[in-house]
Design a protein that fits this description.
Order of helices and strands: EEHEEHHEEHEEHHHEHHHH
CATH topology: 2-enoyl-CoA Hydratase, Chain A, domain 1
Largest sheet: 6 strands, mixed
Number of helices: 11
Strand content: 15-25%
Number of domains: 1
CATH architecture: Alpha-Beta Complex
CATH class: Alpha Beta
CATH superfamily: 2-enoyl-CoA Hydratase, Chain A, domain 1
Shape: globular
Oligomer: single chain
Distance between the termini: 24 Å
Structural class: alpha/beta
Number of strands: 9
Radius of gyration: 17 Å
């Protein structure tokens, strides 16, 4: 449990990918790989019609990259590989021929915002504030940036990157990250279940073709996100960055 867990459950064509980590649902490399593998497996599963991605427990949907793992990185190869975990996850969601619903029940930070942005339809509770704090760590939201910018637009993405402050769920909805915001987790769960059931009855071939339309213009993201992972893989090694990660972790 200390390293987190990922569970996959498929019922009546609705697949749920659920992740958990005891540190506010942070994402070490191991969890990123397991979530990505789950998405890839379900992409090829003929019984799966729609995918719901969610997290368990606590007030946080996802607190982003594991700060412990960031501090442990000692060379460029390992630094790039860590950020490639986010790149592979975003690209697996992008290429998945099924619609992906994100259920965001609490705060989303950094990579958590990237997951919410990479889903095709994102439903959230009114507790689901968002923040891109990477600049405060000495790096940048470079890998998740294309997915976030695609959803909320360049101006809002620049705002989130530079001010690095929390923005509430209604701001996220206003700028297109969330489709709907609910007053309670019960209402959120009911809406997710209803939407997933509806989508599970759609023509799979139509969905697959629509995914290509929705993500048109992102065909270069395999290379783009790898390049972004290389930049952060270098930045994370600097003493400047290590110092700021320690300070951020201590808050």
């Amino acid at each position: 449990m200390e390293s987190g867990k990922v569970n996959v459950n498929v019922v009546n064509g609705i697949a749920t990918v659920s992740f958990f980590h005891p540190k506010s649902n942070s994402l070490p490399g191991k969890l990123l790989t397991e979530i990505t593998n789950a998405i890839n497996m379900l992409s090829d599963d003929k019984e799966t019609r729609v995918i719901v991605i969610r997290s368990e427990g606590g007030k946080s949907f996802c607190s982003g990259a594991s700060l412990d793992e960031l501090l442990s990185l000692k060379d460029f190869k390992k630094g790039k590989e860590f950020f490639m975990g986010f790149a592979r996850l975003i690209n697996s969601m992008r290429k998945c021929p099924k619609f992906i619903i994100a259920r965001v029940h609490g705060k989303a930070l950094g990579g958590g915002v990237g997951i919410a942005a990479s889903a095709d339809y994102t439903l959230a509770s009114n507790e689901a504030s968002i923040r891109l704090s990477e600049i405060l760590l000495g790096i940048g939201p470079l890998v998740v940036g294309p997915a976030v910018e695609r959803k909320i637009g360049k101006t809002a993405f620049i705002t989130m990157t530079i001010d690095a402050e929390w923005h509430d769920a209604f701001w996220a909805k206003q700028h297109g990250l969330y489709t709907k915001v609910f007053a309670s987790n019960r209402e959120l769960d009911e809406a997710v279940a209803e939407l997933a059931k509806k989508i599970s009855n759609f023509n799979p071939e139509a969905v697959a073709q629509l995914k290509k339309v929705f993500w048109k213009g992102t065909e270069d993201w395999d290379e783009l996100l790898e390049n972004r992972a290389e930049i952060n893989g270098r930045l994370v090694l600097s003493e400047y960055t290590k110092k700021y990660i320690r300070q951020f972790k201590g808050k």
